[in-house]
Amino acid sequence: MYVYIVPVKSFRCLKTLHFLNVHNEVFYVPQGLVSYSMPAEEIESVSLPVGWKSYISPEGRKYYVNTSTKGTTDVCICVCQLHGAMEMEESFDAEGSFDDVSCLSPQSPGSTSPARRQNKEKEIKETKITINCVTFPVSMSAPEQQLLKPSEWSYCDYFWADKRDPQGATVSGFEVLLQKQLKGKQMQKEMAEFIRERIKIEEEYAKNLSKLSMFPMAAQEEGTLGEAWAQLKKSLADEAEVHLKFSSKLQSEVEKPLLTFRGDNFKKDMKKYDHHIADLRKQLVSRYAAVEKARKALADRQKDLEVKTQQLEIKLSNKTEEDIKKARRKSTQAGDDLMRCVDLYNQGQSKWFEEMVTTSLELERLEVERVETIQQLLRQYTTLRHETDMFNQSTMEPVDQLLQSVDPAKDRELWVKEHKTGDLRPVDMDI
Amino acid sequence: MYVYIVPVKSFRCLKTLHFLNVHNEVFYVPQGLVSYSMPAEEIESVSLPVGWKSYISPEGRKYYVNTSTKGTTDVCICVCQLHGAMEMEESFDAEGSFDDVSCLSPQSPGSTSPARRQNKEKEIKETKITINCVTFPVSMSAPEQQLLKPSEWSYCDYFWADKRDPQGATVSGFEVLLQKQLKGKQMQKEMAEFIRERIKIEEEYAKNLSKLSMFPMAAQEEGTLGEAWAQLKKSLADEAEVHLKFSSKLQSEVEKPLLTFRGDNFKKDMKKYDHHIADLRKQLVSRYAAVEKARKALADRQKDLEVKTQQLEIKLSNKTEEDIKKARRKSTQAGDDLMRCVDLYNQGQSKWFEEMVTTSLELERLEVERVETIQQLLRQYTTLRHETDMFNQSTMEPVDQLLQSVDPAKDRELWVKEHKTGDLRPVDMDI
Question: Which of A183, A217, A396 lies nearest to residue B385, judging by beta carbons?
Fold first, then answer.
């Protein structure tokens, strides 16, 4: 396997190559990385980050492309399986930027000697990689990790690595989870606003119906027809009542709970979690620095011992065995220092690991609670709507009854009794 | 019976008297009225006009009072049953205005001579009265009139007499019926206006719901919860549709028919009837005038004959039998003229009578039709309201379904798949 840093101009360039970009566009390459290997199957099992897709080339080889960077100059680390630099060159078409390719492997591009390939295979045994001061396994020979909570798509299983946001800043997986919760609070606020707007509409409607019910149109209609008409007009006031009741319940049973079921403490709690986890990462950074410093110190001490031993052998200097013993002691000490630093680092990482699991599960629980609470409140909304329509229907009952009783004959009797002028009929005049 | 014209100051005055005011406050007294009688039972059967009530005095006598004129100086014709003027005087209390009482009877107030009472009883045989040139029966000895359409409170039975409106103008019974129909047209117009206002309210409501359904609140909610929320927002647009449909049907199935079911021809037809009946009354007025003229001419001729016959007997003049024959001939002629005039008058009255029956029955039919049509249209209104509430309910179904399907675990899976940063867990660093 060869490791290249390639600016990706167009995914069309990458026809026959196998690429893996583990952390979106840029794979942070820490000092000290020599090489790493990852077989194609492992590439599959680590699911591709957002925007990466896998394709089959005409030749039948699988390759992975970052589709979201088409046309940009992002750099990606390409892990080329079994391809030498020459084959890389051949694969790039004229639009490629092969000149920009630099190989991280000890061997420079162009070298394909079997001896080097053999050395490569030795280096392939490298099994871990530290990215942003967090140490992950890489080797296919390492026992495969089981998910902590299989089949649950749990937060504690999928947010270990950092990523880069569109501006290029580093964002921890935990940060992504936190942002999700804060966004959830924003969502409930916006839903409450929506309900508020509905309330306003209902109140306006009720006001209009109420006003209209008092207009004097056809108030002079009398009898059974007049009664039915009066009740019809009144029914608008009844409808207005129904809608006012609806809006009132919307406020108390939907809007208010949406606004208040995560109190102000919620944001404070989120900040607390944020700082706590961030602090643990910062500690990890400083402990990793200590490890690197100790490693360098050890290398220096070992080199010093080697030089001094060689000098003794060729009798280059008048260094005594005393000097060699001293050098050996310092070397041993440096080794102890390194062990201690690595220990502290591992403890720090474990601590962060535990907090990550605990806190991400809490965030997961909060999200389940949020979804269920909102589901509940929205069900309350539909219940109130059902109720309202039923109450509204019932306002028609008295109107229907009175319309049923409309009786032209009765109305005539009532009106004639009130307005008649005389029932004596004229008779012939006598002479 | 005595007939008095009494200014009525206070109904308290009229404790023990029986009054009948046949046409509200003023009973039009035509020339030639001598007296008329009406027994108490007949007073009952002609139902009291508006404002008139009957009371029982402490002595147990029934009396009728115009309660709406308390404190005014309306004049009424009082028919006092079996009370002489002296009893009238006794009955008025200090607040009365008995000085203003004038008796229409040949005997002046204060006179209670039996001889005069006997004359009164002779005059009581008067059986008809002509009011506003229409001749009505008054005597209790006349065969009682049966209603043309008993138990139906038909227009053709109760609008024979004229009345006075509040301004004092004469209004025919037919006019009252006509005004009722014109008012009915006004009623349907006002009802249509009311429906129009409802339509406007519905359109406003629909517009507001439709706008709100497109607001972007919580548009970023994803997964099953996001789907349910999106459907909830969409349901407002569905509700808007329902209300728009309602307003549209209100317009075509209620408002429009209310405006148009009596066409413009209606007012023309009413005018036609009005003029036709009024013309027949006018004709009656001129024919009545002819009768009065002929009656007077006959009286003159008769007087002339009488004088001439007397003169012959006392040999006062040298008039010959020839002159008497001439006078007798003229008298006979005048008698024939009178008969002819009375005949024409009676024909005219019969014609008017027939048209009154026909036309008032047509107006009655139109009123039944109006009431039934309006009943129908208002039932359509309530039907549309019922429909609307049901359609409105159904807009909640898809929302309920999606809320049912809200699944926090599924939403977590979807979100984690999209946003995860890496599932490789950290491992201890090697030395």
Answer: A396
Kindly tell me the sign of the dihedral angle through the C-alpha atoms of B169, B174, B180, B183: negative
- Is residue B380 pLDDT above 50, yes or no? yes
Question: Helix A173-213 to helix A321-394 angle, to the nearest 10 degrees?
Answer: 10
Cβ partners under 8 Å of residue A226, min gap 6 = A220, A411
Q: Are strands B102-103 and B128-131 parallel, antiparallel or unpaired?
A: unpaired
- In chain B, residues with a C-beta closer than 8 Å to the C-beta of A129 are none
What is the mean predicted confidence (pLDDT) over A97-113? Answer: 39
Residues of chain A positioned with their CB less than 8 A from the CB of B363 = none
For a pLDDT cut of 70, what percent of chain A falls above it? 69
Q: What is the mean pLDDT of residues A122-134?
A: 76
- A345-375 exposure pattern, b = at least 16 Cβ within 10 A, e = fewer: bbebbeebbebbbebbebbbebbeebbeebb
% chain A with pLDDT above 90: 62
Q: Kind and range of the H or E element at A173?
A: helix A173-213
Q: How many CB atoms lie within 10 A of CB B85?
A: 20
Q: How many CA atoms lie within 13 A of B384 on its CB side?
A: 24
Which of A214, A224, A241, A228 shows the shortest CA–CA distance to B194?
A214
Task: Give the rounded distance of the alpha carbon of B324 from its chain centre.
Answer: 59
- Of B56, B66, B60, B51, residue with least CA distance to B9: B66
Of B209, B393, B426, the CB nearest to A160: B426
State pTM to two decimals: 0.70
Q: Are A127 and A141 in contact (CB under 8 A)?
A: yes
CA neighbor of A267 nearest in space, from A189, A193, A194: A189
Q: Where are the alpha helices (DSSP H) in B94-139?
A: 114-123
- Is A218 close to B23, i.e. CB distance below 8 A? no
